[in-house]
């Protein structure tokens, strides 16, 4: 082990609770100088909470953290930075309108008297970007950079802080293969300089490539740590998934004919102003009466492909079939007219009209069916419709005029589901149907989807939670980097099998998972 | 879904406490209007006379007609700075059609021209041209993703220039009685402009509250991306609100020329700010999605009451401007404060 080297960071028995949840329960983590330490775990395992605590954005309730031989107290984020802990977050924290140099030195600008010393700042910025092999001028505004280059700017910022510990939170989620290789080279260089690195990733292939040791968290608990070299990918996956889950075998279902099909959907360019990943020839078949699960990590292309089907985003090539005919769906309006409905991924940004009433939110797309005298909304019919969904979906609300922003997440999600169901769609796509809602509401949503499928709707569920996909879908398709990497009936799926298909780069060792034919 | 239709106990409702902030946000401007009327009446009892009240309403009816359109525009989180210029352009075009251009222009009104329906010709030209101009602005803004502020800021100058071209720099005056009735006449005792304002306001209120179109306007203003994913054709709705705005600015132009019996190239100068003020004082949020025509009517009348009351009290006109400006800032400031208070809970 690393007994001969003193620990740079020593997290001991750290606990953190939030109302109703224990986010971290006696978690320990030790990082030594010049080590790349992978922090692994499923979504919701507690990785983000731990990183926030290290950065000083939150504080632990119990346990101690020692850094560089001294115990950490409740320093503010900038004080932690001065101590030498730099965090590169998954969601970038750059100011897009400012230049590369300004972003690197934000809050720490070299000054001459009261004024920014521009020559020094530009020179220093140039020095650090050269070191990272980042070929951009220091005065370039950040919005003009690619995602990979922005990531490099973040890292440059960490370097100029003279950090002793750099935390990289899923640094490769948005990068292409050559960019990943470049990043790994930088990580190796940093390591040589004796900097400790915490490397959070979902890609186990990368753990093998750049990391020395790893620590696994599961459900907020410390599971174990080991040398990467001594451990196989299979063992790591087992540690991450851990529990023996006994899923009820999916109820036997009658998968009907194919309602919708997408074929070789390809999109090379990133859409303006979004983090969408390229699609590299996606194929999907959506069948009547079946719940299809789309499993994949964030940025794998699962949301992107359904948005193409829904007409929300454009694509370069490929075909879309609906009920046997080839169709071109150019807008959500056309998709809804065909009979496709979407519950979007981000409830607040894409789903809700937060300042408006439940009534306005629930019936908006189906108003055409609620008319009287051709042009007026029949409020009586509308109220009856809303009331029927309130009882069917157990939506808790005092009345129909309540502003939807005041409801709980679960109730908001049910209103959106009701909105889609009111359209009586042939295909219902739900993206992260249970994100951020409590367990009771989750079960209700699952039951609802099952009932819809029984009644002949084709349901597509996208979820980051593997147990959810396995327990509540009929057929599962795994997606990675814009491609379909596997397909199996849910009865035969295990978290290990799916996780492998989701994390391993095709062509790497361990990827040849045999999927039994059915 | 029928399978899950078992009734579950409804969550115990939170104790209803009287929400001062909510109440004031909804009725605050209205209460303020009542207080103002009481105050001005106490200073001069003639203020409350029917005659004076009709004067106030007539004075603001042209603003009011436009403010209804501006409510739609602002509900979509947009703005239209060109309404004053559109008003002038439409009035001038209507007048030119009725009276002729250049040498063919007749000096005195000819009551038999267009078989006595010259007002109708002017009216149709005004609203048609206004709607067209608004449509163009809306289309340019939504299609090329140019902020409406910029498009209509440009439009403000373009349409004003076009007005000068058509009128050749001078006013066109003198209309027949059928025409000027729309500005100065009365119908069953009520001034015609006030009736027009009333009809437009009621139509706007019903459209926003009781038609799918109204819901869609709120939706587009509240969250354009969610609206798109609900199948709304967001670009069309955005274009349409500017077309409606243009239509109403054209109507206002017709009313103005009828009232003054003259179309001038400087007509409607600065009206856009008064109209926007009326909408904002009435509680419609510049961020879109919140507000409505009822508030706008109150806001419009409030401006009229202030102007009229300050004149009756012989307040120095310079002070009048200061007072109105302060009230606009207070109204919006209160609106923001009330929302932040509600958001905290």
Give an overview in words.
The complex is a heterodimer of chains A (518) and B (345). By secondary structure, chain A is an alpha/beta fold. Helices cover 32% and strands 26% of the residues of chain A. Chain A has 4 domains: 1-84 and 163-171 and 194-243, P-loop containing nucleotide triphosphate hydrolases (Rossmann fold), CATH 3.40.50; 90-162, no CATH class; 255-339 and 425-513, Rossmann fold; 346-424, no CATH class. Chain A contains 17 helices and 24 strands. In chain A, the strands form 6 sheets. In chain A, strands 6-9-10-3-11-12 form a 6-stranded mixed beta sheet, with helices on both faces. A 6-stranded mixed beta sheet of chain A has the order 18-21-22-15-23-24, with helices on both faces. In chain A, helix 8 packs across helix 17. The two termini of chain A are 46 Å apart. Residues 244-249 and 508-518 of chain A have low confidence and may be disordered. With 345 residues, chain B is mostly helical. Chain B has one domain: ABC transporter involved in vitamin B12 uptake, BtuC. Chain B is globular. The longest helix of chain B has 28 residues, at 317-344. Chain A binds chain B through residues 310, 312, 331-333, 335-337, 342, 344, 349-356, 360, 363-365, 367-368, 371, 375-377, 379, 389, 391-394, 396, 398, 419, 421, 444, 447-448, 451-452, and chain B through 1-5, 7-8, 10-11, 13, 206, 210-212, 215-216, 218-219, 222-223, 225-233, 289-290.
């Amino acid at each position: 082990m690393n007994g001969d080297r003193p620990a740079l960071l020593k997290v001991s028995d750290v606990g953190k609770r939030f109302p109703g949840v224990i986010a971290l329960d006696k978690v320990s983590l030790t990082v030594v100088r010049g080590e790349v330490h992978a922090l692994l775990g499923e979504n919701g395992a507690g990785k983000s909470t731990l990183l926030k605590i290290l950065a000083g954005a939150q504080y632990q309730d119990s346990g101690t953290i020692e850094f560089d031989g001294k115990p950490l107290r409740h320093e503010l984020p900038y004080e932690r930075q001065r101590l030498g802990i730099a965090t590169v977050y998954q969601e970038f924290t750059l100011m897009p309108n400012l230049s590369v140099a300004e972003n690197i030195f934000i809050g720490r600008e070299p000054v001459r008297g009261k004024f920014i010393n521009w020559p020094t700042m530009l020179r220093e910025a140039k020095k650090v970007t050269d070191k990272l092999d980042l070929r951009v001028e220091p005065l370039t505004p950040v919005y003009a950079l690619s995602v990979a280059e922005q990531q490099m700017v973040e890292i440059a910022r960490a370097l100029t802080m003279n950090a002793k510990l750099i935390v990289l939170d899923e640094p490769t989620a948005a990068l292409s293969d050559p960019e990943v290789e470049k990043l790994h080279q930088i990580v190796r260089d940093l390591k040589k300089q004796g900097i400790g690195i915490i490397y959070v990733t979902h890609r186990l292939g990368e753990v093998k490539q750049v990391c020395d040791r790893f620590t696994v968290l599961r459900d907020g608990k410390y599971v174990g740590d080991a040398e990467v070299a001594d451990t196989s990918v299979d063992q790591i996956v087992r540690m991450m998934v851990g529990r023996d889950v006994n899923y009820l075998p999916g109820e036997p279902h009658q998968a009907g004919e194919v309602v919708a099909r997408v074929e070789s959907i390809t999109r090379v360019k990133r859409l303006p102003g979004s983090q969408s990943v390229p699609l590299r020839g996606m194929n999907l078949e959506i069948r009547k009466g079946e719940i299809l699960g789309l499993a994949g990590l964030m940025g794998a292309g699962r949301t992107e492909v359904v948005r193409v089907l829904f007409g929300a985003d454009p694509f370069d090539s490929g075909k879309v079939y609906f009920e046997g005919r080839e169709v071109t769906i150019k807008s959500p309006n056309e998709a809804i007219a065909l009979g496709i409905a979407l519950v979007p991924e981000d409830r607040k940004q894409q789903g809700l009209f937060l300042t408006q009433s439940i009534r306005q939110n629930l019936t908006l797309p189906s108003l055409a069916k609620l008319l009287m005298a051709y042009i007026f909304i029949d409020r009586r019919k509308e109220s009856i419709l809303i009331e029927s969904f309130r009882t069917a979906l157990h939506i808790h609300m005092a009345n129909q005029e309540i502003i939807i922003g005041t409801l709980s997440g679960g109730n908001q999600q049910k209103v959106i589901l009701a909105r889609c169901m009111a359209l009586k769609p042939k295909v219902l796509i739900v993206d992260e149907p249970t994100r951020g809602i409590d367990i009771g509401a989750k079960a209700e949503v699952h039951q609802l989807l099952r009932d819809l499928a029984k009644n002949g709707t084709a349901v597509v569920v996208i979820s980051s939670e593997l147990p959810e996909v396995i327990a509540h879908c009929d057929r599962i398709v795994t997606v990675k980097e814009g491609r379909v990497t596997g397909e199996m009936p849910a009865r035969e799926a295990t978290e290990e099998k799916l996780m492998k298909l989701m994390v391993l780069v095709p062509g790497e060792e361990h990827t040849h998972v045999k999927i039994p034919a059915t | 879904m029928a399978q899950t239709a078992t009734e579950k106990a409804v969550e115990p409702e939170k104790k209803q406490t009287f929400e001062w902030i909510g109440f004031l946000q909804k009725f605050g401007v209205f209460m303020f209007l009542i207080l103002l009327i009481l105050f001005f009446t106490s200073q001069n009892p003639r203020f409350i006379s029917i005659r004076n009240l009709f004067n106030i309403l007539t004075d603001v009816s042209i603003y009011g007609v436009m403010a209804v359109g501006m409510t739609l525009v602002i509900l979509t989180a947009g703005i239209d700075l060109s309404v004053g210029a559109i008003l002038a352009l439409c009035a001038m075009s209507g007048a030119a059609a009725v009276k002729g251009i250049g040498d063919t222009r007749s000096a005195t009104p000819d009551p038999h021209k267009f078989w006595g329906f010259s007002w109708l010709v002017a009216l149709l030209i005004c609203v048609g041209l206004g709607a067209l101009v608004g449509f163009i602005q809306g289309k340019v803004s939504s299609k090329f993703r140019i902020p409406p502020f910029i498009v209509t800021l440009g439009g403000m100058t373009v349409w004003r220039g076009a007005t000068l071209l058509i009128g050749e720099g001078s006013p066109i005056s003198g209309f027949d009685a059928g025409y000027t009735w729309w500005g100065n006449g009365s119908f069953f005792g009520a001034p015609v402009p006030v009736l027009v304002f009333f009809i437009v306001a009621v139509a706007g209120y019903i459209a926003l509250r009781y038609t799918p179109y109204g819901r869609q306007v709120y939706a587009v203003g509240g969250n354009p991306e969610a609206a798109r994913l609900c199948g709304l054709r967001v670009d069309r709705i955005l274009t349409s609100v500017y077309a409606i705005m243009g239509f109403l600015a054209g109507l206002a132009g017709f009313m103005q020329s009828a009232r003054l019996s003259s179309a001038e190239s400087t007509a409607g100068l600065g009206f856009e700010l008064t109209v926007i003020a009326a909408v904002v004082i009435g509680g419609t949020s510049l961020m879109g999605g919140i507000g409505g025509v009822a508030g706008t009517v109150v806001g419009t009348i409030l401006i009229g009451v202030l102007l009229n009351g300050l004149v009756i009290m012989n307040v120095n006109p310079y002070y009048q401007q200061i007072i109105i400006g302060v009230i606009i800032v207070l109204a919006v400031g209160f609106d923001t404060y009330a929302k932040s208070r509600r958001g905290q809970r």
